[in-house]
Amino acid sequence: MTIVGALDGLVAMLLLASGLLSLVAALGLLRLKSFFQRMHAPALAITFGSWCAALASIIFFVALESRPALHTLLIVVLIAVTAPVTTTLLARASLFRNRVAVAQKHPPDD
Fold first, then answer.
1. Are 49 and 22 in contact (CB under 8 A)?
2. Is residue 76 part of a domain?
3. One digit per residue, pLDDT tens: the chain, 110 residues?
4. C-beta of residue 49 within 8 angstroms of C-beta of residue 18
5. What is this structure's pTM?
6. Is 110 a domain residue?
7. For labeling, which of 7, 13, 34, 108 is most exposed (least CB within 10 Å)?
8. How far apart are CA 18 and CA 56, in angstroms?
9. Angle at which helices 71-105 and 35-65 pack, to 10 degrees?
């Protein structure tokens, strides 16, 4: 087995891992009951799946072009920063919405 064949195998495994993580996230959306539980699986899968896909891209283009392909890391860093922030904002908005709904059902005694 040559180095190129080994790198192709590694790229294929990373891309399969990324796809499997997306599948797990989709199954989590279907199986979990509440909104807060459903947020957890995709948030993790987006982060780990994007890392796997980006590493596969870096390895492939480094082997293909024989030069660093570090621009892919910028994409991963932006996803890694924005995905948790988006998840947190969605969770806070849903929590606020739930609190308002409960407050409207049970108004405070004056």
1. yes
2. yes
3. 687 788 889 999 999 999 998 898 888 888 888 888 888 778 778 788 888 988 898 888 888 777 777 788 888 888 878 888 888 898 899 889 888 888 887 766 65
4. yes
5. 0.73
6. no
7. 108
8. 9
9. 170
